[in-house]
Amino acid sequence: MSVLTISHLHKSFQVGKQTREVLHDISLTLADNEFVSVVGTSGCGKSTLLSIAAGLEDYESGDVQVDGQTIRGAGIDRGVVFQSYTLLPWLTARQNIEFALKAAGFSRAECREKADQHLELVQLTAFADAWPSELSGGMKQRVAIARALSYRPKILLMDEPFGALDAMTRHQMQELLTGIWEQHRLTVMFVTHDIEEAVYLSDRIVVMGPGTIQATFDVPLPRPRREELTASPEFTDLQRQVLHTIRSGHTRAALA
Ligand SMILES: Nc1ncnc2c1ncn2[C@@H]1O[C@H](COP(=O)(O)OP(=O)(O)OP(=O)(O)O)[C@@H](O)[C@H]1O
C-alpha cells in the first residue's frame, strides 16, 4: 500500500519577471515502510520536491496524498528533518521534543514519556537536559530525528540530514538510522548528494535530472545492512550505475 503518492506535480518559481519551472510532471509513490532516497545534481529540484511533500511549499498543479488524502499544508502525519540544525536554543533536548509533542496535542505526561522513549531510541538519554549549544552537530541531528519520530508520523521526510556532519559522524548517523529503520520500519523519503549513503540506506533510489525523474533503481541488497556490504561488487556496481545515470542526465541537460 502506498503512503505517499505524488501525481503529475508541476512547480515553478517566479524569478523577477520570469517563470522558471523547477518540477515538471513528477509522479512518485512511496510504499508503506519503504526507504526511498532522492539523488541528483545540485539544483535539480530535490529539496523543492521534499518541501512540497512536507506541505511547506505550494505547487501549481498535480496532487500530493498521504494515505489517500490530499495534503493541505504541513501536518503531524509527516515528520521533517533538515540539514540545518532546527532545535530551539532556549529549550533543552527533552523540551525540544516535548514542545513538538505538545503542539501535536499530547498530554503533559505523554509528552514526557514519548520524549524520553525517543531520546533513548537515538541514544541520548544522558543528554536529555542538555541545551542545544552543549550538543555536537551529530547529537543535535539525533534530537531532531527523535523529535520528528516522537509523534509517530506516517512518513519521515529528510533533506540532507547528515550533510553538515564530518565523515565519521555521518557514518555513525547512517548506522543509527538504518538500525532504527530495521527495528521499527518507517516510510522514509531521504534527499542526499551522497550516492554511497543512498545505496546503503535505501530500498529504492530515485535519480532526478533537472525538474524530472530520470530513473529509479531498486536496491536488492540484503538487510540488515552492515559496513562490509559497501565493499561488495553488488554495492559498488549499483553505486556506479547511479552515478553514471546522474552524470549522463547532467550532460544531456548541459547540451540541451
Ligand atoms: N524560493 C525560490 N525562488 C526561486 N527559485 C528557487 C527557489 N527555491 C529553489 N529555487 C530554484 O529551484 C531549483 C531547484 O532547487 P532545489 O533547492 O529544489 O534543488 P536541489 O536539487 O535540492 O539542489 P541542492 O542539491 O543544491 O540542494 C533551483 O534552480 C533553485 O535555484
UniProtKB/TrEMBL annotation:
Molecular function (Gene Ontology), one example: ATP binding
Domain ABC transporter: 4-235
Pfam families reported in the protein's UniProt record: ABC_tran
Keywords: ATP-binding, Nucleotide-binding, Transport
Similarity field: Belongs to the ABC transporter superfamily.
Protein name: ABC transporter ATP-binding protein
Lineage, broadest ranks: Bacteria, Pseudomonadati, Pseudomonadota, Gammaproteobacteria, Enterobacterales
